[in-house]
């Protein structure tokens, strides 16, 4: 008589843990570190020729330096309107006009804001750790069921060790990613 039991799908467990790491990295990308980004201007509208127009449709947006955005206005008559829209946008950026080019120096983050961002990063990392532990727990439940269905004890121990090793490795990746992000945020 052959005993039927299902071996745990280690590939699926690894894939799900990798997914938690990928989600964490995407969340970290959303944290602003005081660097310039062209997408910062996306919500700003300019009164162009009688209608409200996105600012990126009245000029070319560039990011020549990590802390500078430039806006090259195509029509000279739109420069003052674009400058006004930028001042009133609430971004806290002071535009500097130079002909048809508007320079937007991005101010450094203050110490308090940096600390807040490191706490947010830590929360994201903890959520990733929880997701990884949940995947581990799911794998261990399947392993327990396989053992009750007849899996030999030494084989169960081998799978248990594999899943635990994979979990530890992914938790270390989360910790390393968090440490890197926190250093990036605290960099002045």
Report on this structure.
- The protein is an alpha+beta fold.
- The protein is built from four helices and six strands; from the N terminus they run H-E-E-E-E-H-E-E-H-H.
- It has helices at 10-29, 79-87, 111-148, 153-186, and strands spanning 45-48, 51-54, 59-65, 68-73, 96-98, 101-105.
- The chain has a four-stranded antiparallel beta sheet, covered by helices on one side.
- A hairpin with a 2-residue loop joins strand 5 and strand 6 (101-105).
- Helix 3 (111-148) runs antiparallel to helix 4 (153-186).
- The relative contact order is 0.17.
- The model has no long low-confidence stretch (mean pLDDT 86).
- Give the CA-based shape: elongated
What integer is the average pLDDT? 86
Order of helices and strands: HEEEEHEEHH
Oligomerization state: single chain
> Strand arrangement, largest sheet?
3-4-6-5
| Helix vs. strand class | alpha+beta
- Which spans of ≥5 residues are poorly predicted at pLDDT below 50? none
Rg for CA atoms: 26 Å
What is the total tally of β strands?
A: 6
Gap from first CA to last CA:
69 Å
Give a brief outline of the structure:
The chain has helices at residues 10-29, 79-87, 111-148, 153-186; strands at residues 45-48, 51-54, 59-65, 68-73, 96-98, 101-105.
